[in-house]
User: Fold these one by one.
Assistant:
Number 1:
Amino acid sequence: MSRRAWVLAVLTAVVVTGATYSVKAFTFTGLRWPNGSVISLKIKMGAGSGRLIDGKTHWDQTVVASATQWNSTALKGVPIRLTTVRNASGSKKGNDGRNSIFFARTVFGRAFGANTLGVTAPWFFAGNVTSEADIVINSKKNFNSYRGARLIDTTGVGSTPAARGPVDIMRVLIHEIGHLLGLNHPDQVGQRQATIMKSSVSNTDRVLIDDINGMYRLYRVPICRVKAFNAPGARNGNLTNTDCIAPHRPGTKRGDLYSFTGTAGQVHTITMTRGTLADPFLVVLGPNGGKLSQNNNGGGGKNARVRFTAGTTGKYTIEATASANTDRGTYTLRRTVG
Ligand SMILES: [Zn+2]
């Protein structure tokens, strides 16, 4: 079998502007790991980082946390998963049978682009089956580890290299692992949805629904279709086997997703009442895509209720799901404001 390098997928710090967009979703590198793959990431980040902004004390921890985020979301629903080996030994070479993650000044001897933060180099057999993928992080850039809005020298944005940082290494690693798994840059083919897979680093700091759907589609399991639920009121739903695996619950619970725009300061109450579904469970995601709140039986009996004050104006997502992996059936979702 022949092995060859595929085009290197990069994450840069350049701000993309002026594009026109259509609404689509996720794109792929064209490569896929075989079903059943346990992808072992050999972490070779080198010496400890010192204390990072988020409290981590070693670069290795940022790789483990990034892999964990993929495992606990998208990979829960597909037949591959990631494992990690900290302080791994061995060379920092490509095409050596190891999926290495490390800092370097070049990508296997090739220069990084001036604004490139990291590169994923997949290796594959004929048939576009990934055999190995290495992630090289540009050691000349200024990294740290933190959540939320990027810390950046805005005077550099759009003109000179903006990655004066510190750049959050975790969102770069989550992005590069997305490449390793087979996802590409939606914004480079005219898409504009929120995703960690944008070609430029942004305020997005985690795996989002579109990224999860990309993996679901790549492995041919049902994707999560997000229904708009903007006007307060009631919706009847039905959890079935054709719904997606709920992305933010452990196990194989199914989920229906609804989105609404919340205004900062508004108090929202969401209740999920059982029909034939035995035990509803609610998860609410905030505008950053992170879990904001969840509830099992706060709505009386087996019914779920979440009440929260919107901290920021933006798109909130409801994950209407169940307590048990095998629970299927009808429910009613009610949303009130104030
Ligand atoms: Zn990229």
Number 2:
Amino acid sequence: MWSTPRLGPLVVGQALAGGRVSALARGPGQVQVTVALGDGQPVVFELVTAPAAPGPFAALPALSYRPTPAGFAAFRAVGDALASALAPHWPAITHVAWPDAIDGLGEDVAATLPLTALLSDEALARRACVAPWTRLEYGARPTIGPCCADFQVAPAAESGAPLALWHGPAMRGFRRALASADAGATCRASCPRLRGRTDTLATLVARGGPAAFRANQIAVIASILDGAERPATTPLEVVFPATSFCNYDCLMCSHGATGTLADERPPAFYAALAAIAPGLGRIEVLGGEPLASPVFRAVLAGETFAAAPQLEVALTTNGSYLTPAELARYRHVRLGHVTVSLNAATAATYQAVNRGLPWARVRPNLDALLAAHRAARNPRAITYSMVILRANLHEVEAFAALAEADDVAVRFMLPMHDRNQQSILTDAAAMDAAQAALATVAARLRARGRDREATRADGERAVLAARLARGIVRALPD
Ligand code: SF4
């Protein structure tokens, strides 16, 4: 069931035979009307398409009510009035077309509606992955596609403005493959989204927002159901690196040594992004260090995002640029998720691993970020991230404790390659120690009800365990 401010002849707040309509809700084949009686006591009335037995209201026998401490006599008049009001609209009022339900979310950007409440099981299962209809991702190489290039069979080296790429040959190829159930033509079997069925209609959640955003979501869902190769839509999500440059030189990452501001996305890119902002729900900005891009910082502080209230901005950042003053400049931006690459739980290890600003300069930035998100009552939208290396292996549990103390999510990752001889995967004892630490962390997360984070930690642990069991002691991805 999802709530709605209006239902046929009824609106929330309307007076009804001495009571007042306090809530309206609808779901597949049924509607609910909650009426606060004169003494404030709520009574929930239910109207279905096909009632199992007639209810007590003569004007509309399909109307019934939920058991309530109030005696029937206390709400009989309200029930009769409701039956008379709804009778001309039944049974049509119990049916809702999914586009109308999404449009009915209205302007409230916090309103959500999972497609599982709207579509049949057959429709929900129609595509193994919907990313080609919802996402456009610019890779670092540079490549483009609906997702990370690592999971594409032949990442395309197309470039250009988002809308041109959205309708270009690479994205059309993915749509063709996924619509014809031939995902193997474009997608590797190892793709976690494909394997885990994490990007399907069953996992999509429609959101409220301006009319153009609701209309684009409706068009996107229709294009997925149709398997359209050239949909008349714009992306719901765009992912891109703002620059390959980074002001840090982390032990495991090459951006600090090889990144350059010469590849910074120019103002023209953001102008093209602004053109599709009315239909966008989310952008995710990566790097290098995304906030090292002066152009991106200026865009964040400008009008592009203020004009699209539904648009969430997700960042993966080292946090060094998120000073309290900079955060204040971005206060109109809906920071949907900020992943902070900290990689350490103490000042000494922070310096040894990240080789950038000292911890004493970054901690106030974290505090400002936490305060901003708490003010928005959404502290879990921050994640502290650690790549487990030889240099920080001893702080895995302390890192999880730091995230717990700050009430944010925690993420652990295994290193790719063996940069600076830091991979723990080239040393069986280090792999074993990491495995044990991750097991402790996962158990603690689970005990706190943080199952998603625990599952992710277990996933990294499982990779270590499998490689140890097979005697594979060498750096990923081999
Ligand atoms: S199945 Fe994987 S590789 Fe294919 S489009 Fe979806 S996310 Fe990308």
